[in-house]
Design brief:
Layout lengths: L1 E2 L8 E10 L7 E10 L19 E11 L4 E12 L6 E10 L2
Antiparallel strand pairs: 1-2, 2-3, 3-4, 4-5, 5-6
Length: about 100
């Protein structure tokens, strides 16, 4: 959680994640869920990543599943269900990440 002490309202942000497993391991499975809420004037750098479509004034969830092919290569499939606070409906996005670690 974070609170922007320089703002009078819309100043809070929160992100909660739970992860089971580790896709960075060979043949390793990973399952995760993140819940995010960032108000308009929150200190956003504590939470934001490029994966989320909206970086402020929004809320959403991200469940994902990942798999490690070997010690170098892994993959993650993530689903984003987000809503800008002023938008009439949620935005849904699928993201596939292919990762390598040497």
């Amino acid at each position: 959680m974070v609170r922007n002490l320089g703002a009078d309202q819309d100043r809070d942000g929160e992100r909660f994640s739970v992860v089971l497993g580790d896709r960075r391991l060979p043949r390793g499975w990973e399952f995760g869920l993140a819940d995010q809420r960032i108000q308009r004037d929150a200190v956003m750098a504590a939470f934001n990543s490029d994966e989320w479509w909206f970086h402020s004034w929004a809320h959403g969830i991200m469940p994902w599943i990942g798999y490690g092919f070997d010690a170098t290569w892994n993959m993650r499939l993530a689903y984003f269900h987000e809503q800008l606070d002023v938008a009439p409906r949620h935005t849904d996005t699928l993201l596939v990440d292919l990762g390598a670690r040497w």
